[in-house]
Write a structure and sequence with these properties.
This protein is an alpha+beta fold. It folds into two domains: 13-344, 2-Layer Sandwich (BirA Bifunctional Protein, domain 2); 360-449, Rossmann fold (3-Layer(aba) Sandwich), CATH 3.40.50.800. Helix content is 38%, strand content 20%. The protein has 15 helices and 16 strands. The strands form three sheets. It has an eight-stranded mixed beta sheet. It has a five-stranded mixed beta sheet with strand order 13-12-14-15-16, with helices on both faces. Strand 15 (423-428) and strand 16 (434-438) form a beta hairpin. The two termini are 46 Å apart. It binds one RNA strand of 75 nucleotides through residues 1-2, 4-5, 9, 12, 55, 58-60, 63, 66, 82-83, 85-86, 111, 113, 115-116, 118-119, 121, 282-283, 299-300, 328, 364, 366-367, 395-405, 411, 413, 415-418, 425, 427, 429, 432, 434.
Length: 450
RNA sequence: GCUGUGGUGGUGUAGGGGUUAGCACGGCAGAUUGUGGUUCUGCCAGCCCGGGUUCAAUUCCCGGCCACGGCCCCA
């Protein structure tokens, strides 16, 4: 292409989506939307850019290095949004304070992160998510998680693993044995202990316990707790371990069990369910149940969904609505997984319903003034038929080839003779069968349905 | 943040210090001036960018850009 040297390339880490790909993406989006709708969630939308403060308030100043941040002409500090939870929280505080609670909100859109991209990680990526705001407890969490399960199931995703945990279990165990949650120097002892458990650094934990004058006898059961992994039976094992530690509350564990029981009724069983008390999601605003979905086929970037109960609305003066529960679904990653699985099974359809089954009619004006058929085209389109007009004045044979190539189900040639007689033939391209019609939309409509 | 591999028409590829840079798919047109998917013919269209070595670089070297991976990290 001679013009290449003058072309401007797509920025690094971004993607274009052609017609075929968009068909899949739109089908996937409406599938997710339909599930959200059935669970009572309503779609909202927030701006592509926000005040920088919104994200530093949520995640600390460190996030700035990963943001597409800039100043506008009024020298306001803005950034392209790196995620959608904080904007939705902002919107709730700003616009939806007086709506009847609880709110069930869903959203979908681009997010931007300035980082090295690779398979499943892009600088511009798409996130679908939901937040349930203004209600708390095991049933709320179960509703949200069940929606996630139903979405992935309906999308036809296979071989995925739901990992579920509850940050309260270990936290209550640690406070129960006497670790403090208040700051002395820098990090509260409780947070340090959580970190050590997360990284399986039991020597670090021992040092901390000695410093805090806490019996190191607790380390063994804590280690066992953090290493628990398995199905629902894991709850019973955790209960036994916690029972050996005096003064430790079982409330979080009871909640988790209750959540799991409700999920089992609200959604089909996921292909794999694993209870893991160290699914901490690395973030300190999570307060209750936390969960992630992984797809092994995706390798390093295998997490396709993550969420839980968190406290963020207090940042906006709405502490009474905390905690909320929600999740974000990596739209691109789920699609990648679906594509990989479809390819492995040599399946054509990647997303259920991606292939539009409505007839597409190629209207081929032949040696006539095309204005003769425009009224008919309009009537057909009003009746819900997809109509494409041949625009290059091809000869009949070529026009048929064109119609077939672009995926038309039927073709209708209208030439001088047809106009004269008020009749024509609708040709079904799949098998070549022809149907005589009169040149009015009702007759053509019934031929298309034949 | 660390690191591996690679870049030839729109797509997939062959080749290789001096070539009319080959092939397939594709698009367009004709064979075929009222009915497609076959066939035949013609046309369209390419060596990522910059510097170096050389008489000569698309080919070798260096840098950049882009692409695809593996770690780390992740709101």
């Amino acid at each position: 292409m001679a013009l290449r040297r003058f072309m401007v390339q797509r920025p690094r880490g971004t993607r274009d989506f052609g017609p075929m790909e968009m068909k899949r993406r739109l089908a996937f989006e409406s599938l997710l939307e339909e599930q959200a709708r059935r669970h009572g969630f309503s779609r909202v939308q927030t701006p592509i850019f926000e005040s920088l403060d919104l994200f530093t308030a949520k995640s600390g100043p460190g996030v700035v290095s990963q943001l597409y941040a800039f100043q506008d002409k009024g020298e306001r500090h803005l950034t392209l949004r790196p995620e959608l939870t904080a904007p939705v929280m902002r919107m709730v505080a700003e616009e939806l304070r007086n709506e009847t609670k609880p709110l069930r909100l869903s959203y979908f859109g681009q997010c931007f992160r300035y980082e090295e991209f690779k398979k499943g990680r892009y600088r511009e990526f798409y996130q679908y998510g939901v937040e349930l705001i203004g209600a708390t407890g095991p049933l709320v969490e179960a509703e949200v998680i069940a929606l996630a399960i139903n979405m992935l199931t309906e999308a036809g995703l296979k071989n995925w693993e739901l990992r579920i945990g509850h940050v309260g279990v270990l936290k209550q165990a640690l406070t129960g044995i006497g670790l403090s949650d208040t700051i002395e120097h820098g990090e509260p002892p409780l947070a340090s202990a959580m970190r050590f458990l997360d990284k399986a650094d039991f020597e670090g934990l021992r040092v901390l316990f000695e410093k805090q004058a806490i019996s190191t006898d607790f380390i063994a059961p804590l280690q066992q707790l953090s290493e628990l992994k398995g199905g629902q039976e894991t709850i019973a094992s955790a209960r036994e371990l916690l029972a050996t530690m005096e003064g430790v509350s079982l409330e979080a564990l009871d909640d988790l069990e209750s959540t799991l029981n409700s999920i089992a009724q609200l959604a089909p069983a996921p292909p794999s369910l694993s209870v893991n008390l160290t699914v901490a999601r690395g973030l300190d605003y999570y307060t209750g149940t936390v969960f992630e979905v992984h797809v092994p086929e995706l390798g390093g970037e295998g997490q396709v969904l993550g969420g839980g109960s968190y406290k963020l609305l207090h940042l906006f003066g709405l502490a009474d609505l905390d905690p909320c529960c929600g999740f974000g679904l990596g739209f691109d990653r789920v699609l990648l997984a679906l594509e990989a699985q479809a390819a492995a099974e040599q399946r054509d359809e990647v997303v259920p319903g991606q292939n539009d089954e409505t007839p597409l009619l190629a209207m081929i004006p032949f040696n006539i003034n095309s204005s003769e058929i425009l009224g008919l085209v309009r009537q057909l389109r009003s009746s819900g038929v997809c109509v494409e007009i041949e625009l290059r004045s091809r000869k009949i044979g070529k026009a048929m080839g064109w119609a077939d190539n672009i995926g038309c189900s039927h073709a209708l040639v209208v030439g001088p003779r047809d106009l004269e007689q008020g009749q024509a033939t609708v040709k079904r391209l799949s098998d070549g069968e022809q149907f005589p019609v009169t040149l009015d939309f009702e007759s053509i409509l019934s031929a298309l349905k034949a």
